[in-house]
Amino acid sequence: MMNLNSMFKVCVKNTAANFNSSFLQKLIYLLRFSLETSRLRACCENASLQNHFFNSLKIDIFFTVKKQGIKYFAFAFWLLVFGGQNLFSSEKSNRNDMKIICPDSDFEKPISEPIFHIEIYEHEALVQAIEYFYQDTFMLEKHFDLLDVNFDGQDDIVILTGLTANRGQKYYDAYIWNPQQNKFILHDGIRNVINMKIDGARKLIYSSYMLNGGRTEYYVYSFVGDKLVEIDCMIQQENDGNKRYSKSVFSDISLEYDALPSFWKSIINLYD
């Protein structure tokens, strides 16, 4: 433990000592610092040790920068603020007693291994291990977000699954928290939602799917129990820069944007 702590302190001192250099060199040292701390954190045995050493690291940096004078304030502010946002870690919090971690070496990097490992800890004990298999790894990085997808007040695990062959549009998978089983369960409906956006205020999920021929389809989804149900749609057809909107490709009635209800304008504006 002392050896690891000493390594952190050397990293801090080497970084701060080089902050007399040019702006570009400062950025380079910040990048090197981020990579080095990320590597050192991986040496820790568990999340508790990682937090202990990183908090120690932030304190060491504060006093190192304080000695150097006010011109190092930006560096201290950058680290102390963003350091608390898991900038150097694959660890994310779902609630106070839960940590969600990806142990893969290619986390948030171009995918080298098409299996995404996610570990869920409660009170430092491993309670669930997820193995997610990518169907397509082209132009993707391993990454997950914690978002309340089904609006139950509990964050879920959202994974960027792939890009469509048409225009490279994003689609996702989500592991939804199941309080009865006390674990995250892969939902079978989220992947159909292209370019997903979540509206927590309205408790709705939106999708926008661009097709050939100037057509874009917008969809609105809602959770009914544990099922994701399509409740509305709007089709945009663009010809020579002129956009018209209808409820169906077979509809004889179409509207200009200004004539649309404010609800649909708000959704379309999310994607423009």
Concise overview:
The chain is of the alpha+beta class and 272 residues long.
Q: Pick out the low-confidence regions.
A: 1-5, 39-60, 76-89
**Helix amount, in percent?**
25-40%
Largest sheet: 5 strands, antiparallel
Tell the overall outline. globular
Order of helices and strands: HHHHEEEEEEEEEEEEEH
**What is the total tally of β strands?**
13
Radius of gyration: 23 Å
Helix- and strand-based class? alpha+beta
The strand line-up of the biggest sheet is: 9-10-11-12-13
Helix count equals: 5
Mean pLDDT rating: 78
Sheet-strand content, in percent, reads: 25-35%
The CA-CA distance between the termini, in Å, is 51 Å
Description:
The N and C termini lie far apart (51 Å). The chain has 5 helices and 13 strands. The longest helix is centred in the N-terminal third of the chain and has 22 residues, at 47-68. It has helices spanning 2-17, 23-42, 47-68, 73-82, 262-271; strands spanning 91-95, 98-101, 115-122, 125-133, 144-147, 156-163, 170-178, 183-186, 197-199, 204-210, 215-224, 227-239, 242-246. It has 272 residues and is of the alpha+beta class.
Give me some keywords for this one.
272 residues; alpha+beta; five-stranded antiparallel β-sheet; globular; disordered N terminus
SSE layout:
Layout (H helix, E strand, L loop, with lengths): L1 H16 L5 H20 L4 H22 L4 H10 L8 E5 L2 E4 L13 E8 L2 E9 L10 E4 L8 E8 L6 E9 L4 E4 L10 E3 L4 E7 L4 E10 L2 E13 L2 E5 L15 H10 L1
Antiparallel strand pairs: 1-2, 2-3, 3-4, 5-6, 6-7, 7-8, 9-10, 10-11, 11-12, 12-13
